Amino acid sequence: MISLLRTLLLVFSLVLTPAVLFLPAAPAEAQQSASGPDYATWEKTAQRAENAIEAGRASTQALGDLRSELQKWREQFNTEKSANAKTIATVQAQLDALGPVPEDGIEAEDVAQRRDELNQQLKQLNGPVKIADLAYSRATGLISGIDQIIRERQTRALLVLDPSPLNPAQWPKGISALYGSIATIRNEFATAWENPAQYDGLKAQLPVIVVLVLIGLILLARGRYWSETLARRLQKGRETAAWWIITFIVSLGELLLPFAGMLALIIAVYATGLVGLRGDLLLPKLLSAGFIFLLARWLSPRIFPRNKLRALPLQLNSVQRRAGRFYGGC
User: What is the reported pLDDT for 328?
Assistant: First the structure.
């Protein structure tokens, strides 16, 4: 029985193999003919873009997304324009080989028939190319219109003067906003503190929080001093390039150790489980601001050193270097 089934399967496979081999040909040709741009969908997209440009009320983000969509369409049209380039060139070469139509209009029947066939074929080949070319030009115009709107908005944004923080008239609003943010964060902490589940979580994390706070405070208070002291000891009496590189690497501790202390403190705050929405927005900003301050304080004594070295980064006198260190927070 099993041998009979094997024989039947072998026969069916031999019979169906030719059909299977020839089946993909028609779908492949159909897929190739249908692989061009969907002009119905393109028309809807183009009309939507034209309405958005004419109204001018869409957001800059929405216009940017629409521009990206138009850019993809334009790439499709550009591909479609050159899809039949070789075939068109071949047909045109055959027409050129036939030469111009005689002035009297009389030529051999087979030549005239062949000329008509080639002209008809060339017209069919050029049709999709011309449509793609028109769509390409339309997409380019729409993209230019969107770019113009975005540029005008950017120009207006550059020319708009925001309220200056140096204007005393703006200080009450700023102070009010600051107090409002502080009150919101305080309320978030108070609400979380009164929550029994969060309070129990805080007690469970208390040892970790204490360790993180101690590490953070120590690194903030002494990290820069330790790095400066070690760098001076390494540099003392050694002027070679290798020792300079080692000293420079050690001096990075003046930046990294205090920053690690700040990071430990912020992790400790998060470990309490009392951070709310506003606090979650504030803490990363504090970390970024602290890094910028520490970076400026690390750079200032290197760009504006106290002692005149052999090669200063900038040709400044002692008064100018002192001012640079002051503004750098050093």
Answer: 78
Query: What is the rounded CA–CA span in Å between residue 69 and residue 37?
Result: 13
Check: CB of residue 181 under 8 Å from CB of residue 229.
no
The full DSSP string for 59-71 is -HHHHHHHHHHHH
Residue 99 · residue 118 · CB < 8 Å: no
CA nearest 251: which of 269, 236, 229, 270? 229
pLDDT digits over 265-289, tens only?
A: 999 999 998 888 888 888 999 999 9
Side chain identity, residue 132: A
Burial per residue of 44-67, b for 16 or more beta-carbon CB atoms within 10 angstroms, e otherwise: ebbeebeebbeeeebeeeebeebb
CA angle 169, 174, 175 (to 5 degrees): 105
Domain ranges of the chain: 34-159, 195-306+314-327
User: Token digits for 128?
Assistant: 């999709």
Q: Where are the alpha helices (DSSP H) in 195-305?
A: 196-235, 241-251, 253-271, 277-303
Cα Rg, the chain, nearest whole Å: 38
Q: What percent of the chain has pLDDT over 70?
A: 82
